[in-house]
Amino acid sequence: MTHPPKRILIVDDHAMFAETLGQYLRLMLKDFEVIVATSAEKARELSSHQDIDVVLIDIEMSDCSGLTLLADFSAAMPSPACIIVSMHIEALWIERALKAGACGYVAKDSPPSEIVNAIQSALRGKKYLSRSVAQSFAENAVRLPTGEKEMHKVLSNRELEIFLQIAQGKSLKAISLDLNLSAKTVSVHKHNIWKKTGIDSGAKIARYCVEHGLLANGRQEFMAA
Questions:
Q1: Three-state secondary structure call for residue 100
Q2: How far apart are CA 199 and CA 159, in angstroms?
Q3: What values do phi and psi take at 50, rounded to 5?
């Protein structure tokens, strides 16, 4: 009896990256069917009428937080193995992804073979962190101030996305365009961030993010803000 091929679903709204990765996986994993979705909505539609074995999910998408989609897939029955593939390798994203059910986390600038390794590990029921992700996670463990309240942990995933974009000096208009949200919605999120954390300015948010190692490049220029 012939078994149907295992299916891999790539969810990433950067179409060129998603299609290129799809071509690579089809070449390397010839016994797998590889499907590409460039939105969370399309991913949900595709998974609603066929079984998916592995899902590769980007953290930052225009129509939905990748962590929200991850939680949806993790709650599904049967649940596919979920791997985050993202440019965001800050420890807080890694921690949230693992808590939400991810069995792997691969940096987008990793060698493509790391994604294959992550898929193979996931299908064996094991967790996999790419080299740079594991290093970021380990560095954060020794960097965090002891005894200090980590206020960003009270934020929702969407609020956290906006929190980090504010720290990078982006305007509310730019954030709304990046995340495909209305300016009003971004403004409401900003207000909720202030209520939850008590941090009431972009400069203070930037300083907090630098002190807690939440920005990929350090952004030390904000320290003087």
A1: coil
A2: 13
A3: -155, 150
Confidence of residue 62 (pLDDT cuts 50, 70, 90): confident
Q: For residues 208 and 202, is the Cβ–Cβ distance under 8 A?
A: no
Give how far the C-alpha of residue 195 lies from the chain's centroid of Cα atoms, to the nearest Å: 25
- Which domains, from first to last, does the chain contain? 6-139 (3.40.50.2300), 151-224 (1.10.10.10)
Q: Which is higher by pLDDT, 64 or 116?
A: 116
Secondary structure of residue 152 in the 3-state scheme? helix
> pLDDT > 90: what percent of the chain?
41
**Rounded Cα–Cα distance for residues 153 and 151 (Å):** 5
Helix spans in the chain (H): 15-28, 40-48, 66-75, 91-99, 112-123, 131-143, 157-167, 172-179, 183-197, 202-211
The letter for the amino acid at 87 is M
**pLDDT > 70? residue 45:** yes
Report the amino acid identity of residue 74. S
